[in-house]
Structure formats: structure tokens, C-alpha cells
Hints:
This protein is of the alpha/beta class. It has helices spanning 12-23, 38-47, 60-63, 76-85, 102-111, 125-131, 154-158, 177-183, 189-197, 246-260; strands spanning 3-8, 28-34, 66-69, 89-92, 114-116, 136-145, 170-176, 204-210, 217-225, 229-236. The strands form two sheets. The chain has a five-stranded parallel sheet, sandwiched between helices. α4 (76-85) packs parallel to α5. The longest helix has 15 residues, at 246-260.
Amino acid sequence: MPMRIAIAGLGTVGRTLARRLKDDLPGLQLTCVASRDEGKAKAWLTSQGIACPVVPLAALPEHADLAVECAPGEVIADICRPMLAAGKRVMVLSAGALLPRPELIELAKKYGGQIIVPTGALLGLDAVTAAAEGEIQSVRMITRKPPAGLDGARYLVANNISVAGLSAPKRVFAGTAREAAAGFPENVNVVAALALAGIGPDRTMIEIWADPALKRNCHTIEVEADSARFSFQIENVPTENPKTGRITALSVIAALRKLAAPMRVGT
């Protein structure tokens, strides 16, 4: 029997995933969608020839074995709670929203559910996860984005920081992953995933830069551990939403494919 997949949210990532589930992911079946605008979601699904119901978040466990969260971080609990309480799985893209909600992890533990955080717009999480089985001394990340990819972020608004009209790179934040996830909930979910894979959100450090010369979202990570010292860098091509990289949706697709594959490569 194919694994039944729900998509919560039909934005850029959700739509990409829905199209791929329709076409070429063996062993996986899109069985429902949840969306804030039911009418708009139904119209889009019809236009794509995708036959599946649009249901409330609370009804996801009735239709699916795994739900993929492609929605704003503030609704993550509404997506996760029903699925986890039913002993099912949720793939979470808004990893930053998990940090202030440890009760969701406890809920998964209590009922035998599972929260899956895909690699997303980052790389090297396998190495970080492996190093965390030993001792990691430090994890440092530097994120550089075009100003449009940071404009309107909660931290910038609260601190009256403007990234408009820049002619040179500007550092707009330096601090912990926990602080960054709270101040930039739509911009740096990657650092939350990095923190969850490694030494936690209070020891993982990040700088965020707005750089007018860039057209891609760039992340550099440096890790010092007792098993290895390593660094890696990725430059992600944005989607039509400058806050989201194209590789994010592809990472979800790769993670789902692993779940149903006869062989999987990587941790």
C-alpha cells in the first residue's frame, strides 16, 4: 500500500510537492490538502488535474500517514498536534517554530509519532548529526541574503533596521540560533535545523547579512568537533518568493522518496 501523504499549505513549496506527488513518487500518494483558502486550493488542484480533498487541519490523521508542513510557522502546532496524537508523522519545514514548542516533541514521544526535519536549504546535516554522537565544541553559521530576502523580518522591524537602498553588505544580526529563529521566522529556518542536528539553539551561533550584490541565499557553516573539523557553503537560488530557495521543495521530495525507497543513502 502506498504511504498516504497530506500537504498542509499550498504556497510555493506545497504546490511543487503536490505536482511531484501526482507525477513520479512511487510508493507515495497525495490523499489530502489543507489550506487557509479552501476555494483557492480547490481551484488550483483542479487546474493541475490533482484529485484530492481539501480538509481541515484537525482531519489530517483520517486521511494521511504523514503530513508535510508547508505553512507559516505560527500554525505549526495546529498541524502537528492532531497527527502526533494519532501516532503519525509530520515533516516540518518551519524548523524555527519547533524551538519554542518543545511540547510537540513530547507529544510525539508520548504517542509514538515522529517529527521529521528535512535538510531543506542547507547541506551537511548528516555530518553534523554524526559529529553530535561525539562532542561538538562549536557551530557557527553566516547567512548572506539579498535584501529582499530579509525585508520585513520581525527583528528588523522591531529594531528599526532598514535594508532598503543598500550599496554595501550590512550585518543585521549576530546571536544564537534561538534568537535568530524568533527574529527571522521566515528567513533562517536553516539555522534551527542546524541547531537541532547539533548542539542546540543556545550554542549554535549565527550572523545574518543583507548583501545587495547577491542574487542567491548563501550559507556558510563551520563545525569544530572531537571527531572532525569541517566547513561547508551553499548558494541557493530563490523561488519567486525571495525568502525560499528552490532546493527546499526538492529536499522535501528527496526525503519523502527515501521513506518509500528500497535503498536509502545518507543518515
